[in-house]
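Subject: Protein entry, chain in single-letter code together with its fold tokens

Area: Proteins and the way their chains fold up in space.

Attached in line: The record itself begins immediately under this heading.
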Amino acid sequence: MQIKIRSGGHDYDGLSYLSDVPFVIVDLNNLRSITVDVQNETAWIQSGATIGEVYYNVAAKSRTLGFPAGVCPTVGVGGHFSGGGYGTLLRSYGLAADQVIDARIVNVDGKILDKESMGEDLFWVIRGGGGASFGVVLSWKVKLVPVPPTVTVFTIAKTLQQGVTELVHKWQDVAYNLPKELFIRVIFDVINANDNGDKTVQAAFNSIYLGSVENLVSLMNTRFPELGLESKDCTEMSWVQSTLYFNGFPVNGPLEILLDRTQAKRFYKAKSDYVKVPIPTVGLEGIWKRLLEEDQPVVIFSPYGGKMSEISESATPFPHREGNLYKIQYLAYWEGLEETAKQLSWIRKLYRYMAPFVSKNPRQAYLNYRDVDIGQSKNGTATYLQGKVWGGKYFKNNYDRLVHVKTKVDPENFFRNEQSIPSVANA
């Protein structure tokens, strides 16, 4: 029987709960205790907890501690941490995985190991290499990060008619080089341009700044005046309220909404890319054209730089550090099964179009935006070379070390899935 390990059940392509052979789910959903130690600025978090539960519990103990994890509160920490885990604080503090200082893992022999007993190699792989290839991570000890009592957020939306192309072209140079306290991502979708049903592309510049409105407006007037940010566009709030803001929840509403584990049931497909040189204007216009072919497209540009550029590519298995201006996430949403083929065709066509503008040799991808289109094996039976097809994209040069550790800790390839790290001993 194949073993599937599920924490939050939020795997983009469903590998934690789908297979074409009989399988058993090890469901960590009820392992969800969170213990926050304010004095030492740490927390122990079980793998079945969600990001929302982490934010809620940290905020309940301190207004000036936060944690750099994802935007979506229903994501389970087990997959999120073990694949990297990024969010609005990545330019200030890096990834969730970068904060992990201890863990408890059940290995292939059924032993529960901590950082010391698992050894340096196994501790390295679970911080970005995907835990499901190596064992069952039960819990994580993380370093919490300081946040100011008040942060500032804004969202400014512009349409094609309001000069989006020029603004986004400029953003590519600006966002990467801003002070690390400032994160400005861009979310693209399609809206009605008028009452006649004509469509246009809208870009929402969606931002958090670890500081005051006054300092933010001054900084933006100097570094990105084209966006036209004014004080009235900004709102000051606590850091935990910003986690509500980025989800579209009322920021003055109850924080308990972060504890809601209900996930929206929607059909969708996602893909990812990394951009190392700015996309020219003509390339951006090609993206707009393709977005306008679709009803519910979403494309998100998330800036790198800051702390992400200071961490070595080999410090963890997650290699996408210095030299990446930003990451792209592509999303297609649809309502009924009959739409699936059309939507998959659309997002794959957009992905092919983007090839000249993104990273090459390999064309990189983000493990937590699981994408079996870039390569997969039948039930985790890949050889070293077969696994490198997707392993090289997710992990670049770190793939070899992942295979080495896998061969050492799980030579019979007990822990496997369609995109798991292969064991040379097994191959």
Notes: Residues 340-354 form the longest helix (15 residues). The CA atoms of residues 104 and 138 lie 5 Å apart.
